[in-house]
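Quick one, T. Sequence first:
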Amino acid sequence: MSLLIVGAGGHTRSCIDVIHASNRFTIQGLIGLDNQVGQTVLGYEVIGSDKDLALLRSDCEFAFIGIGQIKTASVRQNIFNNLRDLGYSFPTFVSSRAYVSPFASLGAGTIVMPGGIIGPGAKVGENCIINSQALVEHDSVVGDHCHISTGARINGGVTIDGGSFIGSGSILREGVNVGKNSLVGAGHTVLKDVPANSVVRGSP
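Structure tokens:
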């Protein structure tokens, strides 16, 4: 089955690494900026830009978003909705070096990078990034369009609402709730609930 990857930057490289190793899809090409068309990333060509997605749909049913997320989820979310409107389907990818409990669930378009762990009863929504060495413990819920960054530790029963970013090495105490579209900075320890649209940095 053929797959388009939307993106041609650093996060795309990490996605290619997992997707290529899965042997489930043939990567038809990448979608980048106009000035990236014709370039290659890890041997895969940038074959078009956003304006070509409608035309390419006739030859390719599946797409995956290879654009990262730090400050806001809006870019990934808008691309996801546009691709869905065009009729693309979204596979889910799990690195062979990650672990996802058979009692957990992953939404469409989500990727779990090497060393990621998803515990039993955990639910991860659509279009999420569970980055390298990140932990989502038992019974936690991660909403759509979230990025759990490298080495983050999400303890049991945590709820992270849609569009949120959890920075590298951060720790969320069991049972806390992070409101939608929030950002938790790298290395931060979260001991209490975080309201929606918050930016949390520095000491707990």
